[in-house]
Amino acid sequence: MLQTEMSSRAPRTTAAVRAVALRKTYGRGDAAVTALHGVDLGFAAGDFTAIMGPSGSGKSTLMHCLAGLDDVSSGQVFLGEQELSGLSDAALTRLRRERIGFVFQSFNLLPVLSAQENILLPLSLAGRTPDPAWFADVTARLGLTDRLRHRPSELSGGQQQRVAVARALLPRPDVVFADEPTGNLDSRVGAEVLSLLRSSVREFGQTVVMVTHDPVAAAYADRVVLLADGRLAGELHRPTGDEIIDALRTLGG
């Protein structure tokens, strides 16, 4: 059932990432467009949350602000107890590298590197040495053990996305942000990747925040947050695909 009354923010002790009175405006004067209108929202640690809404609802903008990829116009974003808006560019880059994982629709793998080198890249950039046991565990669970020496061009789309998921999980980030992670995959491979994200929450205690337009993909989440016109419009808990479709229909999505 769609809940239109939402708590204003998650408790500090359990929120992996949260927005407080978050507002984002693009442009100035008569050309100004407000993408987010004072959003208050928390994402619990160890949960899988999907963000959904009609085109132009602000879902991608919200994710980009939460992940420190975009500045906010006003309000605050916290990763744990660390406020992002107070960080220098260098500190923000370091935080994204060390505490946030990303999985994108386009995979974003470097073609000249092997799968293993792509997976290790964030740790290499941070000057950190990977835990061999953790690396072996993650790549084995993702079915990549025998593909680590292959370059992206030698991998299927599903295998490339598995590499991207492994790259996101390996640094043990506070949050993994997934932006339409199945958008370039067929339904079978997409279901496989979503199951892997679901497993990372269940087995590794990972926090995952995913933007998607697909009700089938969103049904893998513990919680679906709905946006409309840059404002929170409700949320669903452990919904079915049909329940998500009904909720989106009420929003015109």
Short account of what is shown:
This is ABC transporter ATP-binding protein. The chain has helices spanning 59-66, 89-99, 115-125, 132-141, 157-169, 187-204, 215-218, 241-251; strands at 15-26, 33-44, 48-52, 74-79, 82-83, 100-104, 175-179, 208-211, 223-228, 231-237. It is α/β, with parallel strands linked by helices and 253 residues long.
Structural summary, described in words:
By secondary structure, the protein is α/β, with parallel strands linked by helices. The protein has a single domain (44-63, 87-251), classed as Rossmann fold. It contains 8 helices and 10 strands. The chain has helices at 59-66, 89-99, 115-125, 132-141, 157-169, 187-204, 215-218, 241-251, and strands at residues 15-26, 33-44, 48-52, 74-79, 82-83, 100-104, 175-179, 208-211, 223-228, 231-237. The strands form 2 sheets. Strands 6-7-8-3-9-10 form a 6-stranded mixed β-sheet, sandwiched between helices. The two termini are 17 Å apart.
